[in-house]
Amino acid sequence: MAREPRLTVHPPEAWAVGLPSVASAMTYALDGLGPGRALTLLSKVNQKDGFDCMSCAWPDPGHRHKVEFCENGARAVTWEASPATVPTTFWAEHSLTDLLDRSEYWLGQQGRLVEPVHKPAGSDHYVPISWVDAFRLIAQKLRGLDSPDQAAFYTSGRTANETAFVYQLFVRAFGTNNLPDCSNMCHESTGTAMLATVGVGKSTIAYEDFAQADLIIVMGQNPGTNHPRMLTALEDAKRHGASIVSVNPLPEAGLRRYKNPQTVRGVVGRGTDLADQFLQIRSGGDMALLQWVSRRVLEAEDRAPGTVLDHAFLAEHTLGLDALRAHLATLDEREVVTATGLTVAEMDRLAERYLAADRVIITWAMGLTQHRKGVDTIKEIINLLLLRGNIGKPGAGASPIRGHSNVQGDRTMGIWERMPDSFLDALGAEFSFAPPRRHGLDSVQSIEAMRRGDVKVWFALGGNLVAAISDTAAAEAAMRGTDLTVQVSTKLNRSHVVTGAEALILPTLGRTDVDLQETGPQFVSVEDSVCAVHASHGPLPPVSDLLLSEISIITRLARAVLGDDGPVDWAGFERDYDTVRDAISRVVPGFADFNEQVRRPGGFVLPNGPRDSRTFPTATGKAMLTVNHLIPVECPPGRLILQTIRSHDQFNTTMYSLNDRYRGIRGGRDVVFVNPEDLADLGLADGDRVDIHSEWPDEAERRLLDYRVVAYPTSRGCAAAYFPEANVLIPLASTALGSNTPVSKAIVVRLEKRATDG
Ligand SMILES: Nc1nc2c(c(=O)[nH]1)N[C@H]1C(S)=C(S)[C@@H](COP(=O)(O)OP(=O)(O)OC[C@H]3O[C@@H](n4cnc5c(=O)[nH]c(N)nc54)[C@H](O)[C@@H]3O)O[C@H]1N2
Ligand SMILES: Nc1nc2c(c(=O)[nH]1)N[C@H]1C(S)=C(S)[C@@H](COP(=O)(O)OP(=O)(O)OC[C@H]3O[C@@H](n4cnc5c(=O)[nH]c(N)nc54)[C@H](O)[C@@H]3O)O[C@H]1N2
Ligand code: SF4
Ligand SMILES: [Mo]
Q1: Could you tell me if the CB of 219 is within 6 A of ligand 3?
Q2: From CA 77, how far away is CA 41, in angstroms rounded?
Q3: pLDDT-based confidence at residue 15 (cuts at 50, 70, 90)
Q4: Does ligand 3 come within 6 angstroms of the Cβ of 175?
């Protein structure tokens, strides 16, 4: 059992990636797996005949190196593939009451789950249960509900395409669209904004476009930690002449300086200063910044008519220019300066860069989506790109960078509480049933429904919702109010110990495991951030014979719930995943000849109207320039806007260690980063211990006790703390307009110095 170390604070590191990363990747794998397993595993990560790194959705280049992974990829695969398992005796030794006191870090350290376990109502212990009994129990509960809508079926983004397809089919055949997923807390704002404006909720670029861009603007994203190999693509782009701009309240390592471990120059040299300009924006200020730049573009056009905007493109493919022009003319300079915390000169420098570039890519992640105005901010990205025709040409486009490795594919496969009728029609026609049409619940709505008693059965295919979602106390109370919670998981987490009256844990194979079925070893497929679909073959023998694949679990559950005489051949799906892919090829657009295409080395790229042919499948058939109204993030005097971030050594709710190397934090996570000038204003100093109180107009008390203040160069008025711990501070009702994504990046907080301890 790992001893939890002591917190120490060091200066942040200037360089990202480089030698320490490769070294720690290798050490991590060797220590965790031993030489044989480590070699098999690392030689297969992201290779064309190998398996897909499950850590993030960064795409793979067409030409692969022998080492095609990063430090965090190595950590993720090692974490999953570690041979340690949770022994049967564990369940008798540890009551739920005991497990509730354990940290997320400790829970994850216990090893792979290897047998199904059941917590009967009224009991404080899980006990082993057979698979057959587990399926029977769930079926009984589901069939006993008054309505299928009293159950909700969550998905986390590691779920592969084939699994997701079979899962949503089962859920819809059962009779509900309650398919909340991690995307609701992640890129939902992106999907909402892009579907409305360009008709496709995904990236409009291909991997190769990075190397052809003149300007890449990276907004609200920390690639050095969360998409590390993106730095290689950015370095490449720079070598081809691109400028790179980073917009972020934090000076994140990697965007500033970077060493590429795959080149000799990167390993021994000074590395590259990746960002040519760093705009240290105030939290939530991006929408104002984007409007400012768009306005400068329109003013430049006014000064030299016919030379700045892409008139041919705008006339043929877009609607809304006049309204946008009229709206931006009213933009108030002082309001923009206040919202962004930037100077006019800084913003104008970005506008000049944008005007000087023929091909512009804008990438973004959680720093934009998890805000009250997240959807409108992304609509402003689209506005800015459209003005100069930066969508649907080489080296240009909108590039949301996804989080979980297959979160994008899960949506393509129908994991969404609001799938369009065209998808439901095709699904119903393929399987001769009438899928439910009423929209289902998203993640926040599911918690609300559990609180009201409207959802009684919670089933989760992966993930850790009670830790990942906002308002931890409310989420935990909601989960405890259900009749049954079921978690299909690889490792223990908080969602296994905060349960309904009855609970089940169903252990499953992961990406790294060989998946052997009656017809032989199976593979699955995933879709990355740039819509490329490729196969993933698990290379390692599973740690236990008792483990079932996710497809086995879902198909066997479907048979237990729905019987074997319906129109779906669930047993056939389990025997041979090719039959799942055949069904997908008939239901999901873009997947014709799926079985053949996915077997090509490197896979295939899905068609994408905006990218391929400037076709915009919106309601009007045109790309929409939109008018969006600024709502500033209000921060009363003496308060700070707190954002929640990932450390370098975590994957969402999974902790690999308690360190955050680039930010100089070791051995602990109970820190709050604050600008030194704000600290002085607040009468606080680096090293002080504080309680963090969240301010929201309701009765609930939301606070984090005894955090260490770290003086850190974040933008003025802003602060940062780690997710998931800081989720206790976010009110459930604080969500993004239009997407209902929890506002994880802007929480109004008050810091109160603790009286005694130091
Ligand atoms: N190692 C590792 N990799 C991961 C994950 C992980 O936990 N660990 N998680 C995966 C998942 S699911 C996701 S979604 C992605 C997340 O990838 P990121 O979005 O990079 O993750 P965050 O840590 O949330 O970082 C948000 C960034 O936005 C900045 N930011 C915050 N507020 C604002 C703002 O108002 N404006 C601007 N311009 N910037 C802002 C923050 O300072 C930070 O740099 O990473 C994926 N990859
Ligand atoms: N405050 C705050 N909250 C946030 C965020 C934030 O930035 N700030 N980010 C949000 C984002 S972007 C996301 S995506 C969500 C993430 O929310 P989730 O996806 O729910 O959480 P994860 O931590 O990724 O889930 C980890 C668990 O998945 C299980 N698991 C791992 N691999 C597999 C597998 O192959 N199969 C199965 N069945 N299970 C597996 C393991 O048991 C592990 O404990 O959190 C969101 N919450
Ligand atoms: S960039 Fe992401 S997907 Fe690629 S190896 Fe690193 S963690 Fe894995
Ligand atoms: Mo995410």
Answers
A1: no
A2: 8
A3: low
A4: no
Q: Who has greater pLDDT, 641 or 255?
A: 641
Q: What is the pLDDT of residues 540-582, one digit of tens each?
A: 999 999 999 999 999 999 999 999 999 999 999 999 999 999 9
> What confidence tens digit (pLDDT) does each residue in 16-53 have?
655 456 667 777 788 878 888 888 888 888 888 899 99
* Mean pLDDT across the chain: 94
Preceding amide of 610 cis, omega within 30: no
Q: Note the pLDDT of residue 758.
A: 44
Please give the full DSSP string across 55-98, using - where no structure is assigned. S--PPPPSSPPS----HHHHHHHHHHH---B--THHHHH--HHH
Pick the residue whose CA is nearest to atom 4 on ligand 2: 468
Q: Is the CB of 659 under 6 A from ligand 1?
A: no
Ligand 2, CB within 6 Å, residue ranges: 156-158, 182, 185-186, 366, 370, 403-404, 461-465, 468, 488-491, 493, 508, 510-511, 550, 644, 652-654, 723-724, 726-727, 730, 744
Q: 297, 276, 280: which is closest to 380 by C-alpha?
A: 297
Instruction: State which residues have CB under 5 angstroms from ligand 4, the bound ion.
Output: 186, 403
- Give the phi and the psi of residue 233 in degrees, each rounded to 5: -65, -40
Nearest 5°: CA angle at 31, between 25 and 36? 95
CATH of domain 640-753: 2.40.40.20
Cβ of residue 646 lying under 6 Å from some atom of ligand 1:
yes
Are the C-beta atoms of 445 and 180 separated by less than 8 Å?
yes
pTM recorded for the entire structure: 0.96
Q: From atom 3 of ligand 3, which residue's Cα is the shortest distance away?
A: 56
Instruction: Round to whole Å and give the CA distance between 85 and 402.
Output: 30
For ligand 1, is residue 747 a contact (CB within 6 Å)?
no
Q: Given 3.30.360.10, 3.40.190.10, 3.40.50.740, 3.30.300.30, which CATH number is that of 110-181+406-593?
A: 3.40.50.740
373 in ligand 1 pocket by Cβ < 6 Å? no
Q: What is the pLDDT of residue 263?
A: 57
List C-alpha distances in Å: 91 to 30, 127, 600, 628.
29, 6, 45, 54
| Residues 671-693, mean pLDDT to the nearest whole number | 98
- Which residue bears the tokens 């289902």? 440
What's the full length of the chain, in residues?
Answer: 758
Q: Which ligand is nearest to the CA of 444?
A: 2
Tell me how far the alpha carbon of residue 41 lies from the centroid of ligand 3, in angstroms: 14
Selected residue with higher pLDDT from 755 and 413: 413
Best residue for ligand 2 mutational test, from 185, 495, 514 (most atoms within 8 Å of Cβ):
185
Query: Is residue 26 within a helix (H) or strand (E), and if so which, with residue range?
Result: helix 18-33
Query: Which ligand 3 atom sits closest to the C-alpha of 60?
Result: 4
SS3 734: coil
The Å distance, Cα 525 to ligand 2 centre, comes to: 19
Answer whether 229 contacts ligand 3 (Cβ < 6 A).
yes
Nearest ligand to the C-alpha of residue 81? 2
Residue 253 CB less than 6 A away from ligand 1:
no
CB distance 459 to ligand 3 below 6 Å? no
pLDDT at 86 over 70: yes
Among 726, 712, 717, residue whose Cα is nearest residue 13: 712
Taking the C-alpha atoms of residue 129 and residue 113, their distance in angstroms, rounded to an integer, is 13
Domain regions of the chain by residue span: 24-81, 110-181+406-593, 188-405, 640-753
Give the list of residues 6+ apart from residue 669 with CB closer than 8 angstroms, or none.
647, 655, 658, 660, 722, 725
Residue 474 C-beta-side C-alpha neighbours within 13 Å: 25
User: How much of the chain, in percent, has pLDDT values that exceed 70?
Assistant: 95
Across the range 487-509, mean pLDDT stands at 98
- Which two structure tokens, joined as six digits, stand for 537? 């073959």
* Domain with residues 188-405, CATH architecture: 3-Layer(aba) Sandwich (3.40)
